[in-house]
Automatic annotation (TrEMBL):
Region named Disordered: 1-23
SUPFAM superfamilies per record: NAD(P)-binding Rossmann-fold domains
Stretches with biased composition (Polar residues): 1-20
Protein name: Uncharacterized protein
Membrane-spanning segments: none
Family: Belongs to the short-chain dehydrogenases/reductases (SDR) family.
Keywords: NADP, Oxidoreductase
Signal peptide boundaries: none
InterPro entries per UniProt: NAD(P)-bd_dom_sf (IPR036291), Sc_DH/Rdtase_CS (IPR020904), SDR_fam (IPR002347)
Length: 288
């Protein structure tokens, strides 16, 4: 290779393309490892279920401290994980539908841990029934936590990142129901609320990119939690699996964690405004 060609390759590798200008927001050292080393992560609704599985994965991947922001008191499942990761998993009580209580929770976390680096907006609820059977109270309850609460939590986190001068990461838990309906377990309000979360992901990513804040989401399919215990108990479950195709089982909560860890990590420093479906193909209606 000629000296001029070698120089051109070096310039492309360095991202300069022959120019001496370097963008101010490009770090001198790009992180290529999937690690959360030294990071403080907050996860809403992490006292059990998917949120607790995400917390466990964050801790396995080096997170300094993980805080669950939840309305309920932590139970045996949470305490067992906290015991495994002694002094690294904590619970803070807050109502995610009330922005002021989330702000107080984040202030407590920062006071104790010194900073906040990542926020997983995970708290949510589901209710599967015919659209004609939903009451007004049920619809409003779904939207209050799944959409409005998600917005409040993301905004509180963004304000803290800006205050700190931190290029933080926000990851929403959306759902495969945000893409298309599940024929066997329909829920128009649930799907609509999670579709709103995915749209909000893109809009907030655009708005907050100037602060170096990345906003993404993960869309789980059917996951083995207390809310889905009944799914494999259906008498035609085996037939459903053949109909759906894909992996013939529900996901375990820890199997979602890799997507969240990536999006929270500095290895995803140029990843924003995306959704990662983790669904094993099952749980979605086939188009024929």
């Amino acid at each position: 290779m000629s000296p001029s060609a070698q120089n051109e390759v070096a310039q492309h590798a360095n991202g300069t393309n022959g120019s001496s200008a370097v963008h101010a927001d490009v770090p001198g050292q790009i992180e290529t490892r999937l690690t959360l080393s030294g990071k403080v992560i907050a996860i809403t609704g992490a006292n059990r279920g998917i949120g607790l599985g995400i917390a466990e994965c964050c801790l396995v991947n080096g997170a300094s401290k993980v805080y669950s922001i939840d309305l309920a008191e932590p139970g045996d499942e949470f305490n067992a994980v906290a015991k495994r990761f002694n002094g690294k998993l904590f619970a803070v009580q807050a109502n995610v539908t009330k922005e002021e209580t989330v702000t107080q929770a984040i202030e407590q976390i920062v006071s104790e841990a010194g900073a906040l680096h990542g926020m997983v907006v995970n708290a949510g609820r589901t209710n599967h029934k015919s659209a004609l059977d939903f009451t007004q109270e049920e619809i409003e309850a779904l939207f209050s936590i799944n959409l409005f609460g998600a917005f409040y939590c993301a905004r509180v986190a963004a304000r803290q990142f800006i205050k700190q001068g931190t290029k933080g990461a926000i990851v929403f838990t959306a759902s495969m129901a945000s893409y298309r309906p599940n024929k066997r377990v329909p829920s128009a309000p649930y799907g609509a609320s999670k579709a709103g979360v995915r749209n909000m992901t893109h809009t907030l990513a655009m708005e907050w990119a100037k602060y170096g804040i990345r906003v993404n989401s993960v869309s789980p399919g059917l996951v083995n939690t207390a809310m889905t215990y009944w799914v494999p108990q259906q008498p035609d479950w085996e037939q459903q699996l053949k109909y759906y195709g894909g992996m013939p089982r529900l996901a375990e909560v820890q199997e979602l964690g890799g997507a969240y860890v990536y999006l929270l990590s500095d290895a995803a420093s140029y990843t924003t405004s995306i959704d990662i479906p983790v669904n094993g193909v099952i749980g979605i209606i086939k188009v024929r």
